Amino acid sequence: MTRFDLEKRFLHGGDYNPDQWLDYPEILEKDLLLMEKAKANTFSLGIFAWSTLEPEEGVFHFEWLDKIMDDIYAAGGNVILATPSGARPSWMSKKYPEVLRTNASREKMIHGGRHNHCFSSPVYREKVAIINKKLVERYGQHPALLMWHISNEYSGHCHCDYCQENFRNWLKEKYQTLGQLNHAWWGPFWSHTITDWAEIESPSPLGETMVHGLNLDWNRFVTDQTIDFFEHEIKDIRQLTPDIPVTTNFMADTYDLIPFQSLDYGKFAKHVDVVSWDCYPAWHNDWETTADLASKVAFINDQYRSFKQKPFLIMESTPSGLNWHDVNKAKRPGMHMLSSMQFIAHGSDSNLYFQWRKSRGSSEKFHGAVVDHDNDENNRVFQDVAQVGEALEKIKEIKGSYKQAKVAIIYDSDNNWALEDAQGFSQASKQYPQTLQKHYRYFWDHDIAVEVITKEHDLAKYDLVIAPMMYSLPEETMNKWQEYVANGGHLVSTYITGYVNENDLTYINGWPAQLQELFGIKVTETDTLYPSDENSVAYMEQKFIAKDYCSLFEVKEAEVLATYGSDFYKDQAAVTKNQVGKGTAYFIGARTQADFLDHFYEEIVQENNLKNNWVVQGNPAVSVQARDFENQSYYFVMNFSEEEKTIEVAEETVDLLTNQSVATNISLKPYEVKVLSPQK
Ligand code: GLA
Ligand code: ZN
Question: The domain 407-607: what is its CATH number?
């Protein structure tokens, strides 16, 4: 049991940067007063404090941090203490230029920004090890210390000589011989055979970008190297504080709110104790409905929870607007409570903010924060935060509970990289992550819990596994799917599946025999359409639009569920279903729209009893999400619309937020959220 497991409250608070305010003792004192008023209990400290902690090489100043840690503890709060490697002091860049990154065009960066450091640099690693050790020695036993926040939003890559050397060594370990490497990279293509390990260079706009095996390995290397750096950072931390969990804050690819693209978080998650992430949706934007956006936020939360299949943390979010969106709109009344509760509903044990207090200078001075420049609690945003703090106290019994799901969607980073890189199909319409989110949407609309898993996760506990667009599909995964279906699982696959293996080499003899057997079809062609082109599929006596991709196949054993409406493949199979052993394998050959997916999944859900029976009559804009303990479930009922909505549920409940009983007919005001506990 760690201190975090024993913590009986949801974490509420966020990034606190007192190092920016050391010349203003009255501000620091005010912070302590305001924390109580905001019902904030947890602060992430020191994330960008290196230049304050070590203003000169080897000269350390901890007294300010001692005081803040003590003060927070005395006020009943927790600290998530950061290692400061996300940005380093300028003296270090000046004295040891090797710590700076070299970009893909082989240009050496100069000091500036953050995350501008080489993960391989021996000097950088040494400096990080020194400061991290000092922190763990000094604060490892501090009673306020709840968790370690390792660095900040790891990202990016470096192409310096050290990194090239590490990349080559990584490749040597993977391939052993150049023969094997050349085979995987399809060496003779454009005369690219490598004859000496020293010839290998990371992908660069000045050189190589067309060798797909190289690109894929580089992406994998960057993840492994980032993890290696993370492991380096936590060496002493693990040894000296084995009971304090470590995390590092993950991201999403923002604006679009799809999973983060450049690191394989599924792999990274195995190295952290608790997954945490920073979520910044553009609420009230002018290109999608609130429900559209809410379903994407839900998807990523489900994904990041599913990595470790246990509660995660929201490490950063904003109480109001941001500073880096194109338009930084304020949250409308009600949205802060709703969006905060949505995190909890999907399994977060926190709602933490960036940041506690708006800074006075530099680029984040207008980023939403709990404490505004008015330095006062009597404003709308602060009051919204305080209300969330109060709500989290009222529902604290839910902390630590899990979410059960019988439906899983597979998101695979390797596949995403390989597919993005593939030249063919249509660059603009591939949209792998977005496609997964579209499939997810049916389940979100119908309040059916989903896990978003990697291809490594065990499939046995799911009744339905959805794996769209698995362009890159290792044989091992095909075998796993085969076994899953034979044992009674239901699997859905789609167009652009099973083209290449784990090295991005196409399968010899076309569509793999295992897939032919599993789906009872043989895919022979994939037609890519222009954006203005359209086909249709006829399914259950209705016609649905098909766009972008239509795969053609020979039908072997499978039952044909839908056929194409036009073009040279008119009347040929478009969607199939195949019985294998005790299970079923479905194949959707065309990219359809939400209307088709609704009908298609409705059938599967009915047939296999996957419906959420607690919701008698739902509404697509009202999301119902449960969190469960063994003998108790809690229901979050959230209205993601600007109108009043009504749903009907199976039993009477008590709303933990108001302590009032709630009948089975529930009506919700715009943006209203209820947290319901069935009456015992
Ligand atoms: C990221 C960073 C924070 C801050 C916020 C602003 O999530 O981790 O330090 O810059 O963005 O949204
Ligand atoms: Zn480097």
Answer: 3.40.50.880
